[in-house]
Amino acid sequence: MANRYKRANLSLSFIEHDRVSGFWTWLFVLSKLPELGDTVFIVLRKQPLIFLHWYHHITVLMYSWFSYTEYTASARWFIVMNYCVHSVMYSYYALRALNFKPPRSIAMLITTLQLTQMVVGCAINIWAHGFLQTAGKNSCNISEMNIKLSIAMYFSYFVLFARFFYKTYLSTNARKGKRPIQVTASSTATSGQYIDSGSSLTGKSDVQSLLAGGQANSKIKAQ
Fold this sequence. Notes:
The structure is a single chain. The protein contains ten helices and two strands; from the N terminus they run αααααααααββα. It is mostly helical.
């Protein structure tokens, strides 16, 4: 019974035989390209672009396209998780763009969901690897290379998002009521610079002024 369940969930039928699943899988793969749009806006606006942001977007795009060429069976799990988490995350950003102020706990919840997604992603890859070892390499439509790339990607995401979660919500500055400067509606924020939680930045000029002030202070200290 357990092997039958595994075989059903590690086959490629969800793409080839189920047109609905195949359609949404195709849209998911294509969606990784326009998701780079927010990165482009950050660069064009000359705002800080942290490693987590561009690394996450580029590697997801490359892995998604690579997996689609193989019709990777375990991709159904990754796609469903990503759709669910992103639906919450982009709803949150839409509210922020409309000048609503969701409670801080919502932002913490989103990052927690992302961390959970990474843990489940690693677990699925370990599960798929074990199934290949016991049932044979032809028993599941997933390659060893895909498993290695996927688990490396998910584990690196977990480390980076855990670091982001700590610096944003659990660090000394965060506990003192300060938060990282948010210069864009993105899944990440700039690191190393904090403002009081009671203050707000009204636009790009405010960010530039704050950064310029910090540079001026650094020059004074250097002298």
